[in-house]
Task: structure prediction
Amino acid sequence: MSQPQTDDPLQLVAGELNAIGQRLSYLGSVLQTQAAAQARAAAPQQEAAPGQPAAPPAPAAGEAELPPYPRRAAAEPRRRRPDLEPSRVLAWVGAGITLLGVVFLLVLAVQQDWLGPVARIGGGAALAALLIAAGWWVHQKAAEQRIGGIALATTGFAALFLDVVAATALYRFLPVAAGLGVGLLATFGGLVLADRWRAQSLAVGVVLGSAICAPMITSRPTALLIGFLVLLQIAATPIQVRRAWRGLAVVAGIPAVLAALIGTAWSLGYPSNALIVAIFAASVLGVVLAAITAGARPDADRTNIGLLVAAPTPAFLAGPLLLERVEATATGAGTALLLGAIWGVGRYLPAFADWLSGRFLIATGALAMVAAAQATASALDSSSWATALLFEALVLALAGYLLRRGGILLGAGIYAFAGFWIAIGNEAPVGGMLWFDEGVGVPGLVAGLLITGVAAALPAAGVAIGAIRRLPESLPIWAGALVAALYGTASAIMAACLLVSESHDAFLVGHVLITLCWVLAAIAMLLRGVRLKHLRIAGMVLTAVSLAKLLLFDLATLDGFGRVVAFLCAGLILLAAGVGYARLLGREARSA
Result:
């Protein structure tokens, strides 16, 4: 005997409590009704007119009528899924078996050498036409036989595609372009029929069958194959937009992306300019068709965003792998401009204000930033990636502040994060500040200044537009920005000192200046933190860090005169800061 589930006793108790509450509510209504009836009986009764029955007493004002006794609602019967109806299952299983029979017939005709190739192709076409005609007749005969007609028509179109494959790839009666053209005409006819019948299953079957049979005709990924699949997607777009068929949108869009990806891998071993052009054209058209679909059907956000993300993926891969630097940069920049134009039109043109959904525009902006990053990586050497990403992060931070868009600031933060860690490995290494080897030159100075600028600009812009809260709600963001600013300041100071003189003395002077700058920053935070607790805490932490560097690093690294200068300057600054901080505290106390 199986044990009851854990939730069953709880559900029983909840049901009983609910029933008890309904009964108490009913008893209370009954008592109120009886009390009102007794009050009316004590009052003088009006006599009824002769020959007419006495009317029942009307309820007094504010009195509620006797409610019906509450009963438990009967559980609704579970509805069956329409896709799992026996008629549908039998019809589609029969269609699959029939299609296999057609395949076996063609194979057997070739093996046994029945008739000739022309008769085989003609017989296959006749069988396909017969199946489509039978599907039309069954569909028009009765409404309950609609699924059978759709299954017959789908089987007929699949048999027609197989016949075209045999005529093109097996017997060479048709050139490849002509075979694809016939397949495209058959697909267009199937889509028109599916639109007339309002049958998404027929449209999906026709497009999927055509997309599967097309590679059999070309036998390898070619520009002609990619072009055929793109035309297939274009032909299906008006119907799936009008009928809101998400399944058709996916089945029509994914084959072109897969063909472009396979074509990218194929081009690594067998380069072809036409194939490369087809890959990028498919990506651009895929983005445009995804935007059109999203504008016409904003209710299908997930499908539209999936198609948008998938469409430029082959171009992102093909650019760095197959093209030279200038061409890869141009294609990446062009993709970024296209995606940015769609984002800008959807955001700022009043005529298209409600054209695209917010989530779709967010995905478009994110892809535009990915394309811009790819163009940057293609245009520059790896030694300059950090500087370029940090500069782009600074520009995006300014754009986010001016346009009041938190999404742009998020992209700027991603650029800044990537640029910071790349700079630690190239332009501004940690080892360059610990040991004197050689200066990092102008790139190190520029990278340090950019790190400091981005670390200051991003949180400030976020607070100005309301995307980032002030302390302490966003403490990790401010702490990360402070660490980045300190590191960027130290890198810039050390690079500037070594640019003046690439000597050990310049290295020591740089460390003295770094310590003094950190002490000054800590004092500024303390003075500003008289009224702001968290700035005061940050200033104390930075003061402790500066003193730790002074005692642990500078004391062991600097020579006699540098050590004296560092300790004297730091001590005098701290004394002056202590006096000024005491005056501020006294002033605040008197004002309070």
